[in-house]
């Protein structure tokens, strides 16, 4: 395990998804960025420059590990080799947080390289609860589960997404990661009110926020279709929705994701600085209280 001198918890400030081209800038002057997120699967190898850089970063910043390959919602058992490699990383890094997605990405031994949707039914709930409990027991720590971006809905669902996530959190003791861009993308694609979604979300279980950019496309009928691309600045309506979230949930660690067409450090840091400014009223209220 790394010997970390700083407080190894995520601060109620802005973090960014770490990209290797930003290593020098982060070590020189991180600006308002107070923590970093890495994708677990990028650091499951043995040695090399990625882990060497991560060691230096972990000595300076709290780190959150975000998984994309466990297939929490998959119908088959969790991959024991993947879980073992994840535990090796978690035990070595001792991150401030670990999170995964409400999705599935494996079938019949094949990895599909995408985060695919689920019906919100009792059988899905039972399966996801079993998998989350397995992950938490194996890692010896609490995990967070992230709401997905959606492009279709299932007629057989018996819960809304916020209701389903509440059931998962209550059954497993996991926390929730509220991705505000995912809410906006899903609301546009499935034609529901994103504010109403937030108003029914179990905000008392939320421990982290995500913000990201999206692309606009059209479906086969010419209707607007948003894609959670992580390749642009956060869109203005998402900032507005983020203000609504903060007004109801208060301040939590917030991550700016930018995974494609990664910009210069100054652009990403400016997005993080804006996220911090949006949370300042909630942070001020907490200090006064």
Automatic annotation (TrEMBL):
Domain of life of the organism encoding this protein: Bacteria
Entry similarity comment: Belongs to the UPF0276 family.
NCBIfam families recorded: PRK05409.1
Designated name of the protein: UPF0276 protein SAMN05444851_2270
Organism (species): Aliiroseovarius sediminilitoris
């Amino acid at each position: 395990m790394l010997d970390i001198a700083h407080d190894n918890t995520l601060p109620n400030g802005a973090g960014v998804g770490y990209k290797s081209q930003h290593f020098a800038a982060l070590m020189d002057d991180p600006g308002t960025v107070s923590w970093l997120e890495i994708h677990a699967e990028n650091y499951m190898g043995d040695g090399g420059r990625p882990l060497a850089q991560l060691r230096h970063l972990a000595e300076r910043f709290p780190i959150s590990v975000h998984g994309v390959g466990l297939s929490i919602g998959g119908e088959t058992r969790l991959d024991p080799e993947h879980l073992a490699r994840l535990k090796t990383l978690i035990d070595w890094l001792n991150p401030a947080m670990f999170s995964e997605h409400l999705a599935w990405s494996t079938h019949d031994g094949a990895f599909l390289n995408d985060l695919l949707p689920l019906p919100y039914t009792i059988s899905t709930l039972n399966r996801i609860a079993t998998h989350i409990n397995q992950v938490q027991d194996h890692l010896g720590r609490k995990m967070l589960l992230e709401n997905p971006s959606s492009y279709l809905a299932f007629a057989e669902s018996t819960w809304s997404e916020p209701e389903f996530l509440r059931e998962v959190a209550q059954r497993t003791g996991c926390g929730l990661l509220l991705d505000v861009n995912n809410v906006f993308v899903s609301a546009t694609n499935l034609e529901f009110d994103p504010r109403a979604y937030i108003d029914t979300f179990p905000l008392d279980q939320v421990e982290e926020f995500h913000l990201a950019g999206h692309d606009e496309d059209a479906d086969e009928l010419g209707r607007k279709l948003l894609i959670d691309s992580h390749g642009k600045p956060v869109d203005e309506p998402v900032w507005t929705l983020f203000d609504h979230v903060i007004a109801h949930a208060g301040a939590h660690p917030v991550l700016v994701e930018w995974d494609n067409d990664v910009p210069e450090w100054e652009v990403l840091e400016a997005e993080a600085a804006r996220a911090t400014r949006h949370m300042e009223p909630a942070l001020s209220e907490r200090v006064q209280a």
